[in-house]
Design goal:
This protein has about 280 residues and is α/β, with parallel strands linked by helices. It folds into two domains: about 15-210, Vaccinia Virus protein VP39 (Rossmann fold, 3-Layer(aba) Sandwich), CATH 3.40.50; about 220-279, Orthogonal Bundle (Helicase, Ruva Protein, domain 3). The protein contains twelve helices and nine strands. The longest helix has 13 residues, at about 220-230. The mean pLDDT is about 90.
């Protein structure tokens, strides 16, 4: 297996794209990154990856994949675009035993079963499925999860929603789900000009690590509570939460004014409400 400080020589990414006749698919939310120094910086965010299992979603022609392989990671890459499989096969040949390519839809795969061991997720997520995948990784009653960290590229607006503080315009359901039993930080901003083709928006990378889960709270309860509260975020809590059985009584128990709006509640307030509901 190649070691991280002696990677095999590889052609520039632009040559790979040209050789395989690839172009970014708007339907699949693709935007390619060619800057190998930037890709190496992204691969370094999770820390030492030497001989660590890494899941990558939507590798495309393999720009980030090669950076992860050079860092010594054992990468499983899920790619639904069959056009990209030959380019990834070239990387498999260059890094024997380090890269497994799974052709298919990442939303249709049980990632923990696929990996079979603790794993980090590092991905330039396709914009059209990024939030859906992220909330799936954050959900579930089993905690800590099988993933050890999430290092994910999002539209900057979405990234800011993940790390937002209460009583800000970006604060909402995504922030609560990301922060109630995880540590989330904005690790890097990426200018739109770094991509081919350049997207209309700026991007940013979020890094998330599991933290200790508060006792007496079910993930499903918190998800239901935040969905109702932020689904009508302009309304007072007494209105937005009236459809959640027991929620109005829980507000009283927690001494939370029912005329407040969801974005004014701290993550700990939602945890306290969920704990009362789970009784």
């Amino acid at each position: 297996m190649p070691v991280a400080d002696q990677p095999p020589p590889l052609p520039p990414l632009r040559e790979v794209i040209a050789a395989h006749g690839l172009s970014a698919s708007k339907a699949l939310g693709q935007n390619f990154l060619f800057d190998e120094q930037l890709l190496a910086r992204i691969a370094a965010i999770p820390g030492d990856l030497d001989n660590k299992a890494v899941l990558e979603i939507g590798p495309g022609p393999g720009g980030l994949t090669r950076a992860l392989l050079r860092a010594g990671a054992r990468v499983t890459a899920i790619e639904r675009d069959s056009r990209c499989i030959p380019a990834l096969a070239d990387l498999q040949a260059a890094f024997p035993g380090q890269l497994r390519v799974v052709e298919g839809d990442a939303l249709a795969v049980d990632h923990a079963d696929l990996m079979g061991e603790p794993f980090a997720v590092v991905a330039n997520l396709p914009y059209n499925v990024g939030t859906l995948l992220f909330t799936r990784w954050l959900s579930g009653e089993d905690w800590p999860p099988r993933w050890t960290s999430l290092t994910l590229m999002f539209q900057q607006e979405v990234a800011q929603r993940v790390v937002a503080a209460p009583d800000t315009s970006a604060y909402g359901r995504l922030a609560v789900l990301a922060q109630w039993r995880s540590r989330a930080r904005l690790a890097m901003k990426v200018h739109r000009s770094a991509f081919t083709p350049p997207p209309k928006v700026m991007s940013a990378i979020v890094h998330v690590e599991p933290a200790e889960a508060p006792s007496g709270v079910r993930s499903a309860t918190l998800e239901r509570l935040t969905e109702a509260a932020f689904g009508q975020r302009r309304k007072m809590l007494r209105q937005s939460l009236k459809g959640v059985p027991g929620a109005l009584a829980a507000l009283e128990v927690c001494n939370i004014d029912t005329t407040r709006r969801a974005e004014t509640l701290a993550v700990s307030d939602f945890v306290a409400l969920a704990r009362v509901l789970d009784g």
